Amino acid sequence: MNFKVGEHVRFLNETGEGIIKSFKGKNMALVEIESGFEIPFFLNQLVKISADEIKKGERNRSGSPSYSIAGVKRVILEKAEAEAKNKKASQKHKRKGEHIVEVDLHIENLVGGHSHLSNGQIVVIQLNVFEKKLEAAIRNKVDRIVFIHGVGNGVLKAEIRKVLNNYETLVFFDASYTKYGYGATEVIIK
Questions:
Q1: Within 10 Å of residue 16's Cβ, how many Cβ atoms?
Q2: Which domain range does residue 28 map to?
């Protein structure tokens, strides 16, 4: 149904009527009710009032408001909730893009001298650091963390992914090849 500015309309889901003052997008109109407030309504919740009905209504008007306070409150609450949701989503999106923690698990970055350590001991040290950093990221509500494990034989990568599979609130995948090569795993904490 096509509406125009200045048309008289009645509300489908509540008592009352008003005059269309403007449009907000394709699906919403600002309707001025008797009290002078402009309230947003979806177009599919409005019905045009014919000129005959308008004249008949003016003769029978009792002077009491023809809008529902509960309806006005509902519309205002819905609008406030939608704005809050949009704000929260944009903040969350912005935060995710800005804050990615990187943890380099190469053994030379974790201990001073490592030539005396066996390969098994090296992997144990790397896994301990990995688990501590992961738990700290979850505790501190970090959105994303990248573990740089290197390529090697793939033992550390396999062990890291085995641990990550135990967490239902995590999503993980190979980190950006252009930034890290093949040797990193990115974790998103939900």
A1: 18
A2: 8-93
Q: What is the pLDDT of residue 161?
A: 94
**Amino acid 96: pLDDT:** 44
Distance set, CA 26 to CA 5, 45, 69, 85 (Å): 13, 13, 26, 21
Instruction: Give the closest residue to 171 by CA, choosing from 130, 131, 138.
Output: 138
Cα three-residue angle 54-56-59, rounded to 5 degrees: 110
The pLDDT assigned to 153 comes to: 83
**Domain membership flag for residue 1:** no
With residues binned 3-state (H G I as helix, E B as strand, rest as coil), the percentages for the chain, rounded to 5, are: 45, 25, 30
Tally the domains of the chain: 2
Instruction: Point out the residues of the chain with pLDDT beneath 70.
Output: 1, 52-99
Q: Is the residue at 85 inside a domain? A: yes
